[in-house]
Design brief:
By secondary structure, the protein is α+β, with helices and mostly antiparallel strands. The chain has two domains: 104 residues, Alpha-Beta Plaits; 106 residues, Alpha-Beta Plaits (2-Layer Sandwich), CATH 3.30.70. It contains five helices and eleven strands. Strands 1, 2, 3, 4, 5, 8, 9, 10 and 11 form a nine-stranded mixed sheet that branches. A two-stranded antiparallel sheet has the order 6-7. The radius of gyration is 19 Å and the shape is elongated.
């Protein structure tokens, strides 16, 4: 039976790297005695995958993982058994059984929503002026070096409330914009200096788009 879970990455684990986080979650699944399914072959591993990796130093209330169990277990029981043995900061919020033929979570993700607590006072007027620009150029790191890139197409929404930036941006495997680049571009537009160590980033959720608009993964 295949499952998808939405989980958190809290403050006390925000500096845990992606691979270490994966190993921690897999150990929790084992401790929870959920009967996770393993692959066949010389090097068996859990049938498990995770959505778009989260940058070190960021927190999240909207991360996702897919896994497969040997037996059919109720969603609430999966959630309870996992959370009973998980470290603080990694908690399942919601679980859903997957239907046959559903895409893996990593293949679905196209966008991410973020909440960023800023260290500078950026007005709503400046943010609207920034969002209305025809092009938004930044220096973006590529395999061949630093190049100018227009990130306007990667921005779905950007708004500010009480000096907290709310943004939805490309976060998939094909199109991906780092939230720090967006904030830096906004600061440049506002005439402010940017230091990524002085902002606080929390990923709120991950999405894909269909004919009706943005959808959640659960």
């Amino acid at each position: 039976m295949k499952y998808r879970a939405k989980y958190t990455k809290g403050d006390n684990v925000k500096f845990v790297g992606h691979l270490d986080l994966l190993r921690s979650i897999q150990r929790v699944i084992n401790r929870a005695e959920l009967g996770v399914k393993y692959s066949q072959g010389f090097n068996p591993h859990q049938v498990f995958s995770i959505a778009q990796p989260l940058a070190v130093g960021h927190t999240s209330v909207g991360e996702y993982m897919d896994f497969e169990l040997e037996n059919d277990i109720l969603e609430n029981e999966v959630k309870q058994r996992f959370n009973d043995v998980s470290p603080e900061g990694i908690k399942i919020i919601e679980v859903r059984k997957l239907k046959d033929g559903e895409k893996k979570v990593a293949a679905l993700v196209e966008y991410g929503s973020y909440k960023v607590v800023l260290d500078k006072n950026i007005s709503d007027e400046v943010t609207k002026s920034f969002a209305s620009r025809d092009t938004i150029e930044v220096d973006k790191e590529t395999k061949s070096g630093i190049k100018k890139a227009d990130i306007k197409k990667d921005i779905v929404e950007v708004r500010i409330q009480d000096n907290v930036l709310h943004a939805t941006i490309s976060t998939g495997s094909m199109q991906n914009l780092k939230i720090e680049l967006l904030v830096e571009a906004l600061y440049t537009h506002a005439g402010e200096e940017f230091d990524e160590n002085k902002i606080d980033v929390e990923r709120q959720d991950l999405h894909y788009r269909d004919e009706e608009g943005l959808k959640g993964l659960i």
